Prior knowledge:
Structural class: alpha+beta
Largest sheet: 11 strands, mixed
Bound molecules: adenosine-3'-5'-diphosphate, magnesium ion
Helix content: 25-40%
Strand order of the largest sheet: 1-2-18-17-8-9-7-12-11-3-4
Shape: globular
Oligomer: single chain
Number of strands: 18
Number of helices: 11
Strand content: 15-25%
Amino acid sequence: STPWTNGLPQVSPYGQTQQLDDLxxxxxxxxxxxxxxxxxxxxxxxxxDESRDLHFDDSSLSYFYLLQDDVTASGGIDLSAGYxxxxxxxxxxxxxxxxxxxxxxxLEKRTGKKTTGDIITWxxxxxxxxxxxxxxxEGFELNATWFDRQLFIEENLPxxxxxxxxxxxxxxxxxxxxxxxxxxxTMPKPWNECSRQEIESRGQKPVSNTAQYCSVVKTGLGDVxxxxxxxxxxxxxxxxxxxxxxxxxxxLFDNPLDHYVExxxxxxxxxxxxxxxxxxxxxxVWAQSFLLGVPKAIIGFRTDQGYLQTFEEFExxxxxxxxxxxxxxxxxTTWDGVDALAFLAACLRWLKTMxxxxxxxxxxxxxxxxRSDYLTLSKTDEHSFLNTEFVxxxxx
Length: 396
Ligand code: A3P
Ligand code: MG
Ligand code: MG
């Protein structure tokens, strides 16, 4: 796992050739066991509302509500309904790490303590790194900078915008199905606080992906501690009130993470090919949920015409075993959670040690070119991407 300088020139989609002094990390899915993951613990949470304004509370948390009968009785729920009035968030706006960093300012002002951890980032970024040994077709770029002795990592959005192929109508619609499923499977309050009318009309309003609820957790792998924030689709039943946990017996601690659920859609499985494609997709579902400590994923199965036919619960912990024991498993190509974690551990250690800690506010670029065998690291002369209010708070 020692990083070295490699002399293999690689051409990026921008036409740049990799510099000879770039540092690189080989991507392997070597059959080795890495260090254990620390159990994630929620340190705070926050919400974006329908106007994308931030609130340091749980106002945008949704609660699961979907009955198998509702799905089957209707002969399938039409997930395309309301597509013409979809209120889609503009994802070309670069929010950097703002929501997360402002939530940390709020937390630190309340507690009077700096949030500790070596790496601070979005869960989606760690998911990319965790899945990388088995998802080699898509390139990405990340920015990383040390500040206040912590390493902050964000996606380099200009790269993503410049390289992603413009979505065609079909994939736009399929992406809408995912949000529509979230809408029809959840309520804005726990079900016992909802009126019958609220429950029955839950699919009527336009779908929007602007409001989001995010959990911020402390976790770690080996000797790298992390603070990661990610969207939580809904709670299964309720979210424990932190006040009820104060001074409680640790054995009785009602962990908020235990109540969270990840929602996904997938096409109905009708062939061996569908089954094996679904098992590949479970890598992301597992990685994404595992990193935040979300114990359950609920997959809505839909037809190619976007009709929801059924849904099924998966325990996050059991996903790697289900895939490994499946009759579609191939010893050479099937993903392995232990190996993915070993790579992530090596990758985080590499970033923490290779980016010079003393050079605060210098922005480094982490690159993965499609189908390449290395992750590379190079210094840029760009300005820090950290939120100014956060920087000011930490410098006080
Ligand atoms: P599904 O993946 O269930 O279809 P998430 O599952 O991460 O909470 O994302 C919610 C939905 O956002 C997805 O639902 C999908 O519709 C949409 N989505 C997420 N990432 C996407 C991407 N890279 N491209 C297009 N749509 C995406
Ligand atoms: Mg989500
Ligand atoms: Mg989801």
